[in-house]
Design a protein that fits this description.
By secondary structure, this protein is α+β, with helices and mostly antiparallel strands. The protein has four helices and four strands. The protein has one domain: Glutaredoxin (3-Layer(aba) Sandwich). It has a two-stranded parallel sheet. A two-stranded antiparallel sheet has the order 3-4. A hairpin with a 2-residue loop joins β3 and β4. It comes from Astyanax mexicanus (Blind cave fish).
Length: 119
């Protein structure tokens, strides 16, 4: 949620050259586990229903693109090394950009530079 506005600006600026998708994964900063003091109040998901409910809080912030959820086995997060968050640009099934792990390696500005080259 920290850089959601920057992400939304990417969607606005590059929606004509890229399809955007958010995959909601395991909650990295769950309030019943390890949390930032000023973060959203979401507990660790015990089942898919809880993960869907948590993802709804993101949908309500209107990320301007589809939001899907990872399986409870966390297969997507595992395969993409996405915990707690990570940005990717894919083209034709190939990884064109693999961002650093968030929150410190989460850089919408780097994605912007990659997408500008694709325009």
């Amino acid at each position: 949620m920290f850089k959601l506005d920057e992400f939304k600006q990417l969607v606005r600026d590059f929606g004509d050259v890229a399809d955007f998708l958010v995959i909601y994964i395991s909650e990295a900063h769950a309030t019943d586990d390890w949390a930032f003091g000023n973060n959203v109040d979401i507990k660790q998901h015990r089942d898919l229903s809880e993960r869907l409910t948590a993802a709804q809080s993101l949908v309500e912030k209107d990320p301007l693109c589809p939001v899907v959820v990872d399986e409870m086995s966390n297969i997507t997060a595992s395969r993409y090394g996405a915990l707690p968050e990570r940005l990717y640009v894919l083209q034709g099934g190939n990884v064109m950009y693999k961002g650093g792990k968030g929150p410190w390696g989460y850089s919408p500005e780097e994605v912007r530079m990659v997408l500008q080259k694709m325009k």
